Amino acid sequence: MMSIVLAIVIGLAFGAVLDRIGASNPNMIGKMLNLTNLNLAKTILLAIGTGSVLMFAGQMLGFVDVGHMSVKAAYIGVFIGGLMLGAGWALAGYCPGTGVVAAASGRKDALFFIAGGLLGAAAYMVTYPMWESSGLLDSIAGGKVTVGTVPGSKFDGMTALPGDVLGIVLGLGFIALAFALPERLTPSKSNLQPAE
Predict the structure, then answer these.
(1) Residue 194 has what pLDDT?
(2) pLDDT at 190
(3) Which secondary-structure segment (H or E) carries 130?
(4) Transmembrane stretches, by residue range (predicted)?
(5) What is the distance between the alpha carbons of residues 169 and 155, in angstroms, rounded to a whole number?
(6) First to last CA, the chain
(7) Is 156 left (phi over 0), alpha (psi -120 to 50) or beta?
(8) Burial level of 104, CB count in 10 A (0-12/13-18/19+)?
(9) With the CA atoms of 53, 29, 125 and 111 taken in that order, what torsion angle do they form, in degrees rounded to the nearest 10?
(10) Residues of the chain with pLDDT under 70
């Protein structure tokens, strides 16, 4: 029971942060994707980098149990699904998490987004045997593997590089990128000069 309460509290806190940084606003998502306002992208990079450093450093120091690490298998279908998710995110201005946060903050368009997502999930469940027999769900690149070898985990590493150190280095790279990115990558309309 306590784990459910903790999950609800963490979920509410995460949702509040998503709403506060503008991730539940489709206009902010659009500005991020067309590179006119990268503040949200910088926040995402900072969060991923910080989480990576804390998780892998915690594993190295024994604060985080490596047994809790979960690795998903690589397969062609997940790459196709990722492309579909990205296209849907660009079109709707929501991903599944931000759509729920937007609905909770009163955006009615997010309710249609959630309904569409549930309908898509139901369609996938009904047609799952077809996708499974197509080979799109067969593991590739070793299936459940990590880039580096994480001591004490049950997953193989694709390289002999120490996975914990690699995770920290990549996390620090994401943090550095978050601070190095400018606010925008495209010129503002006020900076555009007429052709001569």
Answers:
(1) 57
(2) 57
(3) helix 108-134
(4) 43-61, 73-91, 111-131, 161-181
(5) 20
(6) 70
(7) beta
(8) middle
(9) 120
(10) 187-196
**Is 190 a domain residue?**
no
Q: How many residues does the chain have?
A: 196
Task: Please give the Cα distance from 73 to 79 (Å, whole number).
Answer: 11
Tokens linked to 81 = 């699904």
Residue 15 lies in a domain: yes
pLDDT digits (tens, 9 = 90+) for 4-35: 999 899 989 988 988 888 888 999 888 888 88
Residue 194, in any domain of the structure: no
Residue 183 CA to residue 187 CA, distance in Å, equals 11
Whole-Å CA distances, 152 to 56, 66, 68, 156, 169: 12, 6, 11, 10, 19
Measured over all CA atoms, what is the biggest interatomic distance in the chain, rounded to whole angstroms? 70
